[in-house]
């Protein structure tokens, strides 16, 4: 009996020992990311879309009044935009440029299209070919993507020489990217506080390219499908959405647009404005929001818009 009790006690002591095993990795840990990402994950928004509350149903008369006011506003904006576009300068590629009051440049009414960039690529050996393979189907009238800041600079330099040789522009004129400040004027922002794009970033709240309402109305632009404002999965034809009062299309959505400026003086990254077809967080769609990317970075949500410096072309 004593031997049996000793055996049971020995087994119990062995069972009290802790079996050590390697700790499992924390697979759900959040990765550390930079403050300015170059392309966000689609399923990790900076800010969730707020749930829609159930509104009080307006009376037929109230609904008719709201619709009438919206239609009158859209008609007035279209009239001014059409007048601006009627006086547009058209270059040899068919790109249309309108004067933007408050700046000394003319803005192209569209983002640079696939067919514009194709003409440049055909005339220059060694152009990076990723613009041809964005990973989705594009028409020639869609904005070119997979282009870096350096690519956009090279395009503007080539276009300046081409237009000067054709007699469409004269000495002292040139094509380039818009500055961050010029882009702000073109999108309709008021005076911004700060000296650099970083200091101005998100400084003006609750103002979007389409107005002040949130969520954006149907037809506001080409944004991520979760906003349900457009029918496009990826890029869309230039001019698919109504122009702003200056005659400019897609100042919000479709593709991010490179600007001349660095995000901050000590940075190598340059500013992008306007959001794209792949974005939906509320903050990212603000007219005052700045994205940034290194000058050699290419992605399928980055494109660019040109401006003409030095007076109207001829």
Helix content: 25-40%
Q: Which of globular, elongated, flat, extended, rod-shaped describes the shape?
A: globular
* Strand neighbour order, sheet with most strands: 1-2-3-9-4
Quaternary state of the chains: single chain
Total individual domains: 1
Instruction: Give the biggest sheet.
Output: 5 strands, antiparallel
Give helix and strand order, one letter per element, not per position: HHEEEHHEHHEEEEE
CATH fold-level assignment: paralog of FGE (formylglycine-generating enzyme)
Number of helical segments with 4 or more residues: 6
Strand-pairing-aware structural class = alpha+beta
CATH homologous superfamily (4th level) name: paralog of FGE (formylglycine-generating enzyme)
CATH class category label: Alpha Beta
- The end-to-end distance, rounded to whole angstroms, is 114 Å
> What would you say the CATH architecture is?
Alpha-Beta Complex
Supply the key terms.
single chain; 314 residues; alpha+beta; paralog of FGE (formylglycine-generating enzyme); five-stranded antiparallel beta sheet; four-stranded mixed beta sheet; 6 helices; 9 strands; 25% helix; disordered N terminus
